[in-house]
Amino acid sequence: MDKLVIHGPTKLKGEVTISGAKNAAVAILPAALLINGVCRIENLPNISDVKMYCKILQELGAKITWITENEIEIDTRDLSCTQAPLEMTSKFRASYYLLGVLLGRCGTAEVGLPGGCNLGARPIDQHIKAFEALGAKVDIAQGKITAKAKKLVGTSIYMDIVSVGATINAVLAAVLADGTTTIDNAAKEPHIVDLANFLNTMGADIRGAGTDVIKINGVKELRGNATYSVVPDQIEAGTFMLAAVASRGNILIKNCIPEHLDCITAKILEIGGTVEDYGDSIRVSMNKRPNKATVKTLPYPGFPTDLQPQMGVVLATADGTSTLHESIWESRFQYTFELNKMGAKITAQGKSAVFEGVKELTGSPVYATDLRAGAALIIAGTIANGETQLYNIEHIDRGYENIEEKFRNLGANIQRVTEQIEM
Ligand code: EPZ
After folding, report:
1. If you average pLDDT over residues 252-273, what whole number do you get?
2. Which of 4, 114, 310, 312 has the smallest C-beta neighbourhood within 10 Å, fewest atoms?
């Protein structure tokens, strides 16, 4: 098993280039199955979730040619089956997008119940509601979800809860349906807009993505014959913005979309940081101890839940007592127990955590409990005095490309070490 060994404290300084967005890529890759043709996808992040998805698409009959480690050509004219391999789909959450595309393309789909980060209950009732509204019959048995429909017919769908995944799955199922589908109370994340842009480039007719009402006029088929570049990763960019603040450093974050980061910028200014917007890059610097703050996670354009742990590291050493409210997930504070091992003073209770700011952290062995908690613990190890050993880093490799190289290029003393397990 690999671990990261980090020595601190370091003020992170320099430039970092943001990769393509994980949560856009894991929607765009299955969406390619809706195309009866060939297309190219660029700026894919070189991460394990993308590699896993490509393997699943090949299992289903797609032909994938790797042009570079970040670009593929995918031929989806001949799909051989509609049952996604259980042992693969159970490894991550986004595999459930295969339901929307296989239902949309073939009228039948069978996918293992999704895996993914342990953030508490992760129901899929809104996904099922969307599929049934479009005319599908959905069953869940033996750890699998099966969906069937003679023909999907456009309709109006009102989401009872703002859900990224359910919004995406509803769009995927509606693209080739007969007639028009309207999704009300839709999620507005940048990766939803990116998916809609990809599908429209390939011949779909989707309007309103990025607002809370998305309209999809069903088309007969998607032709493909186009190239699409995945949007820069809002969450990776936000991770490095908060790393600059936590380390009292100065980082130029290149290849990002600053307006996707407005909420993080506002919070950084509030706690005493500096942010300069250059259109396709953003510079964040911090030369003092952050002020305390109250932060509440919300669907986009609110403060992203996927930056909550990274903000927690900033608040752990802020001046005074801060509060974090997690309104999306029921259990996303496991990382605070790891930070407390490093000398933080955090009390997590249900969906809130209180941070009594300490002057500094001390290096310690810690464990990544999910993808974003892992990234937060890298930041913590960078600012802590002494050595931090970070285990379970396979979580981090799911969503961050070349993470230790990017931190090392900013001055961090960080090494990936392969632990020989004594048998
Ligand atoms: C996506 O998860 C992201 N994953 C998550 O990022 C992110 O935390 C989340 O959106 C919120 O932004 C991917 O895009 C692959 P939701 P998703 O459906 O789609 C409830 C990361 O670190 N809900 O928007 O699973 C749900 O329980 C990952 O990159 C229902 O009740 O999240 C939650 O409370 C972690 N019924 C809320 O909605 C449903 O049918 C939002 O979940 C679906 C969701």
Report:
1. 98
2. 114
Q: Across residues 168-175, what is the average pLDDT? A: 98
Closest CA to 51 of 394, 306, 374: 394
The domain made up of 22-229 is a member of CATH 3.65.10.10: yes
For residues 81 and 206, give the distance between their C-alpha atoms in angstroms, rounded to a whole number. 27
Instruction: Determine the Cα angle at 134 with ends 130 and 138, to 5°.
Output: 65
Residue 306 near ligand 1, beta carbon < 6 Å: yes
81-93 confidence digits (pLDDT tens)? 777 777 777 777 8
Q: Which of 119, 128, 164, 325 to mutate to test the pocket of ligand 1 (most atoms within 8 A of CB)?
A: 164
Give the span between the Cα atoms of 67 and 49, in whole angstroms: 18
In the chain, CATH 3.65.10.10 sits at 2-19+233-418, 22-229
Burial of 78 (0-12, 13-18, 19+ CB in 10 A): exposed
The answer to whether the CB of 328 is under 6 A from ligand 1 is yes
The end-to-end CA distance of the chain, in Å, is: 13
Ligand 1: residue whose CA is nearest its atom 27: 122
CB of 127 within 6 A of ligand 1: the answer is: yes
Residues designated catalytic: 117
Distances in Å between the alpha carbon of 254 and those of 14, 238, 247, 374, 406?
11, 12, 19, 22, 12
What are 178's strand-pairing partners?
A: 153
Q: What is the CATH T-level fold of the domain 2-19+233-418, as seen in this structure? A: UDP-n-acetylglucosamine1-carboxyvinyl-transferase; Chain (3.65.10)
d(CA 191, CA 168): 9
pTM: 0.97
